[in-house]
């Protein structure tokens, strides 16, 4: 399974929720791609 995450950023720093989404995606497993 492949997972695509759309990451939100503010002034060059990723939003805090992005880390939670990445952790959830890792728990699911498979390939993870992040689009910033």
TrEMBL record:
Organism domain of life: Bacteria
Protein name: Electron transfer flavoprotein subunit alpha/FixB family protein
Organism of origin: Halomonas icarae
């Amino acid at each position: 399974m492949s997972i695509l995450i759309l990451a939100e950023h503010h002034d060059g720093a990723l939003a805090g929720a992005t880390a939670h989404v990445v952790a959830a995606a890792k728990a699911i497993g498979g390939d993870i791609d992040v689009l910033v």
